[in-house]
Amino acid sequence: MPKVAVLLGSLRRPGMGFGIASWLTPLVRQSFQTARTSTPDASSVDVVLVDPTQPPLPLGPIVDGSHVPADIRDPTKHPNPAVREWAMFVTSCSGFIILCPEYNKSYPGELKNTFDHLYWEWARKPVMVVAYGGGGGARVEEALRGMLGGPFKMQVADKGVGIKWPRGTDKVPPEGPAPKWLQAYEPEVLAAVEELNGLILKNKA
Ligand SMILES: Cc1cc2nc3c(=O)[nH]c(=O)nc-3n(C[C@H](O)[C@H](O)[C@H](O)COP(=O)(O)O)c2cc1C
User: Fold this and answer.
1) Ligand 1 centroid to 167 CA: how many Å?
2) Cα(165)–Cα(135) distance, rounded to whole angstroms?
């Protein structure tokens, strides 16, 4: 069964990200099911949320100067056990959804580290961006697209989602029904997952 990982860019707790992730993950699962009902022979998709505070993440800064990640083609050959575990997980995934807050018009450093520890593992993997922020996340989406489709050579879905909340909004609780302003993004998520699904199926063929 193909696996798709939802990678959360924020480690903050309490933060907006964990609540949005708990709304997004089951919605993505359901959206893949909907997208695949019209695709004969397509198996269902295992959608997993990666908690960036749980091992092997966060990986922290790159301090090992013995090599650059692009030197390592085989994910089982990374010298650091945590990086190796992460490399094997990334290799096992068929696609990714990056759920990322905007910090000073870009992405959090920890998310960049999560990418920088690896190189070949990301190449050609389909990916979709869900950005969020007090201002809507348009700048972080642009920055992410440049990173994912540029040095990491991922296949980035044209459709993305940019989430903005009304001023003074409380953090999204990780349990219970999502607030109405967040539910309003469901059609956009569905459309973007449909495109991601197409990229994954094409990659497999
Ligand atoms: C360090 C930092 C920088 C931020 N910079 C921006 C920004 O450039 N644009 C924006 O719309 N919101 C910005 N914000 C507001 C965040 O988008 C908002 O706090 C959001 O809840 C962060 O997601 P998180 O709680 O999941 O970490 C910033 C927040 C932090 C903590």
Assistant:
1) 13
2) 8
Residue by residue, what is the 3-state secondary structure of 98-115?
A: EEEECECCECCHHHHHHH
Residue 90 belongs to a domain with what CATH number?
Answer: 3.40.50.360
* Domains in the chain, number: 1
Beta carbon of 110 within 6 Å of any ligand 1 atom: no
Ligand 1 site, residue 141, Cβ cutoff 6 A: no
Expressed in angstroms and rounded, the spacing between residue 122 Cα and the centre of ligand 1 is 26
The verdict on the CB of residue 133 being under 6 Å from ligand 1 is yes
pLDDT per position as a tens digit, 101-111? 999 999 999 99
* Buried/exposed 107-136: b ≥16 CB within 10 Å, e otherwise: bbebbbebbbbbbbbbeebbbbbbbbbeee
The residue range of the domain holding 149 is 3-204
Q: What is the pLDDT of residues 171-201, one digit of tens each?
A: 999 999 999 999 999 999 999 999 999 999 9
pTM (2 d.p.): 0.97
